[in-house]
Amino acid sequence: MNASHGLKKFMNAVLFREIWNAMKVTFKHMFHRPMTFQYPREKRVIPDAHRGALGLLRYDDGRERCVGCDLCEVACPSRCIKVISEEDKSLPLQRVATEFYIDITKCVFCGYCVEACPVNALAMTKLYEYSTHDKRTLLFDKKRLYDIGEQYMDDAKKYLYAHNQEKDDHESRVYRYQFPEPVHKPNTS
Amino acid sequence: MALKPVTTPDVEAATIELTIDGKTVTSKEGVSLYDVISNTGKIIAAMCYHYTFDPFGSCGVCLVQQEGKKSPVRACTAKAAAGMVITTDGEDLFLARKKAIEKHLLVHPLDCPVCDADGHCELQDMAFTHGVTNLANAKQKNIPEDTRSLVLDFNMNRCIACGECINICKDVQRIDALQFMKKDGFTQVVAKGDQALECEFCGDCLAVCPVGAITNKFSKYVYKPWQLKKTTTTCNYCGDGCQMYMETKDTEVTRVTSPLSWKNKWGDRSDTANGHSGLCVRGRFGFQFIDSKARLKHPLVRKDNGLTEAPWIEALELAAGRLARVKSKYGPQAIAGLITARCTNEELYVFQKFMRVVIGTNHVDSSARYGHLNFVRAVHHALGIGRMMNTSAEITRAKAILLVGTNITETNPVASLRVKEAIGVYKAQVMVVDSSQTNMANLASHPLIVHPGTEGVFVQGLVKSVLDQDLVDADTTARYPEAFSALQQAAESVSVERVAEQTGIPVDQIQEAARIFAEAPRSIILCGEGIVRQSGGYHNVLNLIDLAWVTGNLDKPGCGLNTLTEEANEQGALDMGVAPEFLPGTVAYDDPKAREKFSQAWGIELPQGGGNANLMEILKRCREGQIKALYVVGENPLATLPSSWDVQAALSNLELLICQDPFLTETGNLAHIVFPACTFAEKDGTFTNQEGKVQFVRPAFDPLGESALDWHITVGISHALGQAMTYESTQDIQDEIRKLLPGYYNLGQPKKVEVNPAPYLSNGYKGEVASRYGLSSNGHDQLRPFGLKMIQLLYHSGKLSTRASGLQNISPNTHCLRVAPVELERLGLSPDDRVRVTSDQGSLELGVQADLSLLPGTCAFPEHFNEPPVKDLMPIELDPVTGVPYFKLARVTVEKV
């Protein structure tokens, strides 16, 4: 037992057995399709449920979906969202977010804010390329978020669908608030 | 109206025993079962119940099982009876409650995310705790939102018709501005007659609304409750001292809420005698001045090109250097100080100590001089006390209340609720003596509307009438026979008929009022600005003391003499000795024992008494050049006093005027140095309300910009002067006050004042009383037929509230003279016309508006506005004893132009 073990060891050493084993793996890969790809010339296909940068969405008629309800802010575990809302100056009795900030450096991409949103105004996109030299640009404001939403509208819709939140435009309209109209003059009836 | 408090001061309800969840509980017969259960510590859900009014029983959630009944009963409307066996828990009850909640949710829109009540909504909480998740056949009401009112929006889609708003308006506020109306197929809450809501805007309906059906315009959609920091503090508008929650986002005040809310519904109905914890329109909606853009954020120093911003260190050094120069050149008597009674007790204490110890002068006064001082000086002189005698609970339970010269609902709205409760719940007889048809006069059993300025005459008439009708209390008068005979002699000069003629009240009504006041088991006097701020105020308060004394209502429990203050801390200002005649603790300045105590405590010899100037005297001496430097904290005499006193000249004559205020006021514009002070929302300290409750003021955020607490600035000047006052925190000042005035910090439970009339009645009374009685001969001035009154409005307090945009929205300066509608007709005036008002002091032109509360022969203008400067038409008269200036009434002519 001991002698055969010693012999085997000797033979392995003489015949460079380990090197052959290693080279076997190497040669196998010569006939493989490459595992890596040439980022940024080539890009990975990202699944619909991917949690990337957040964007704000509009309805198909161009109206902002967000009503400034602040539920994303409370749902956020890393406290990276800040919403400031008020009554819409042009449309009385409609609530609107005047300012909306997401500090994406703090964001943990949990997607809770999207789940909390009652009007599906927030969605995650497949955007992940926003590295920058200036960290201040990573505080996304309302305009940036709407730009992201517009640019990645398809991703956002697929995200919502993948997360079982909204199937189609029709459903988005169902979620929409019907704000009451103001009474302007005393009821004369 | 079945469940009034069952235990009134007169009737004690029977004690009964009943069983709740197997435990025997004792209670009073006839109270709401809901109260009995909540007193055991069990909390059952309810949406329409609130302890401040009678149970309404519309929500159907507070279900309990009573033995012997098939179905659950509503706990709120059921009366406790002996031998009841009640179960409050169980699967069946849970399901029954859940069903009731589902019923409400079926027609409730699920717009929680945009609703202002989200996170502070009873229906939301209940749906959550009862696990209501699935609603079949939910429907929407689609009712338009009523935004016609200036303050409140009514979204009737969210309304669950609990009726809390209507009930609190009717039962507590006694305004009855809201009603149910069946409209568009739904029961909706609308303003009376489905008009735009026009009421006192106390906002109690907003506070008790368990859903978001009533929301306010000033903070609509700008917050969610979880974003706000809530600070419990004391309101700084009037002397009622209401507790309130200041809700802020960083340095922005978002809204003010009251302890009264649907969340605080558990209590005994009789608890409301101590107050219902609500607020008035000023407290609730007048917060915008706090974070106003007009706030001063940097010290200002006068340079060649006017007031310019300067660093703190420079401004303090300059102030101290110039103060030191004035002091060394002219002596400490050339320096004087004025402070507003809206400062905290600690600031007032530090201020008077600074003036007396660091500067060495006793020329120090506060805005309590404008009226409250008359009351305190009178009760101090006659009864040896320093504030009003009764608590609010005693006012509620009085049997007769004499309200003299006060439009209490407008000046002290929350205190007025105690009187309203006395009228409505305890059926008190209330006599309202005022020169206008006030809201309280409409509710009272005996509205006695006198000619303007004759409130004091009416009091004399009452005393005379008591003597004439022999309504005197033999026991109390027999103890001081000499004083009583002196009073009888003095009253000889008064005849009830003459009083009737001068006041315009028939003789029999005066006599009836006297009878009611003298014969009621508990009689309370409440006097206000019509007494303390009008000619002869000091004597009139003493006459009221006479009235209480001869009718035996001075030292009986539940009786007494009370006043109302206009500013939050007028009582505190006098308690802290900010008046030349008082030391802290309202002891006389020349009391040798007190002087020694304070000399020792402060380590100096107190400046000599005598010849010390009060507010009016200070301004006079400024004008005459005896006072060279004036340190003004928050006061604005230039905008307050009529121009005939020539404050402008007085202030321009000064070598040094230091002004310390959150805003750049008229007085500040003349100042050499202006320090930016902060408002009460940034302060730490205490206010003493008119009842003597010392209540905490807590900072909601750090001082805005570079502004600082008033006492910080005062201490800063003392440091720069090289005589440092070594306070580091409000706590240090409080410790010192605690040592000097043991028991002053009473945590809102003041000790009962001990009335001691003996020294006055047996000594000084005889000599004085004769001078207090007697009617002046000139009744009506034919030359100037109108009485022009400077009135206080419900929606404003002093000049401060005009900085609050919310209150300005509700009640802007109309630039109009208020006249009775009949007078408009008589003078042939239409609302677009302008009139010329002429008094002996001058004349000016302004618009007119009808005011239903005024009587023919009276016109009025709010004292809060100086545009046009109606105050300058006022003659000014000083009280010979207290030096209080009277400038609220003038005789004028009104002509169309």
3D structure, described in words:
The complex is a heterodimer of chains A (189) and B (897). With 189 residues, chain A is of the alpha+beta class. Chain A has a domain at 54-175: Alpha-Beta Plaits. Chain A has seven helices and six strands, in the order H-H-E-H-E-E-H-E-E-H-H-H-E. Chain A has helices at residues 2-14, 17-30, 71-75, 112-116, 142-151, 153-162, 169-175; strands spanning 54-56, 81-87, 95-103, 122-124, 139-140, 182-183. Chain A has a three-stranded antiparallel β-sheet. A two-stranded antiparallel sheet of chain A has the order 1-4. In chain A, strand 2 (81-87) and strand 3 form a beta hairpin. The longest helix of chain A is centred in the N-terminal third of the chain and has 14 residues, at 17-30. Chain A is elongated and about 100 Å long. Chain A starts with a helix and ends in a 6-residue tail after the last strand. Chain B has five domains: 15-103, Ubiquitin-like (UB roll), CATH 3.10.20.740; 110-125 and 133-285, Alpha-Beta Plaits (2-Layer Sandwich), CATH 3.30.70.20; 300-368 and 576-674 and 701-736, Rossmann fold; 391-558, Dimethylsulfoxide Reductase, domain 2 (3-Layer(aba) Sandwich); 786-896, Barwin-like endoglucanases (Beta Barrel), CATH 2.40.40. Chain B is of the alpha/beta class and 897 residues long. In chain B, strand 28 and strand 29 form a beta hairpin. A seven-stranded mixed β-sheet of chain B has the order 15-14-27-26-25-16-17, with helices on both faces. A six-stranded mixed β-barrel of chain B has the order 30-34-31-33-32-37. In chain B, 32% of the residues lie in helices and 19% in strands. Chain B has 31 helices and 37 strands. The two termini of chain B are 54 Å apart. The chains are: A alpha+beta (189), B alpha/beta (897). Strand 6 (182-183) of chain A pairs parallel with strand 6 of chain B.
Key features of this structure:
heterodimer, A: 189 residues, alpha+beta, Alpha-Beta Plaits, three-stranded antiparallel sheet, two-stranded antiparallel sheet, 7 helices, 6 strands, 14% strand, disordered C terminus, B: 897 residues, alpha/beta, Ubiquitin-like (UB roll), Rossmann fold, 5 domains, seven-stranded mixed sheet, six-stranded mixed barrel, 32% helix
